[in-house]
Amino acid sequence: MKLGENVDVVAPLNVKTAEKETGYLLLNPTLITNGKITGFENAEVPDRYKSGENKIDDKYFIKKGDVLFQAKGSKIEVVYVEKDYENVLPSTLYFILRTNEKINPEYLCWLLKTELLLLYFEKKFRRISIVRAINKSYLVELDIELPEREEQDRMVEIIKSFEEEEDMMLQYLKTKKQYIEESIISKNGVKINEE
Asked: What is the reported pTM?
């Protein structure tokens, strides 16, 4: 199955960061941490939309259930949009992927982050000077066999459970590291002498 048969791949509007409020928000890669959206910037939209006469098509705004695929830049990042936001446009680095009922968007997001597909896209990257880019056609034409939707749903539950366990383990190790550092520094009387 070609991915484009069950997923709409939307190229974003050309928007950039604005100095002041415009009524629109912009999602940049710097506002994504560990695959989670952490905030937005004000967005400057193309001139044809500024007066309010022309309405921006709904397809350009991110929605709950969207998968954002970073197709330009130094890395490939894939983000699942977990909730609805109002008037948020992704930066031009992202394609918006919208699945139909045959594909669980969380499964698609996970799949696009697997080593198998990251290597596939790494081979497809083309260079525009020092910036790498993936063409929309590589996503649309991606020929991949997927399990039935019910199986995808089951896999998503397993994936979520693993990710929760992984997060707890990482938090535990971070706390343990901090404790060990503090204990060793305290026990050995390590101090920074400032003049």
From this structure: 0.78
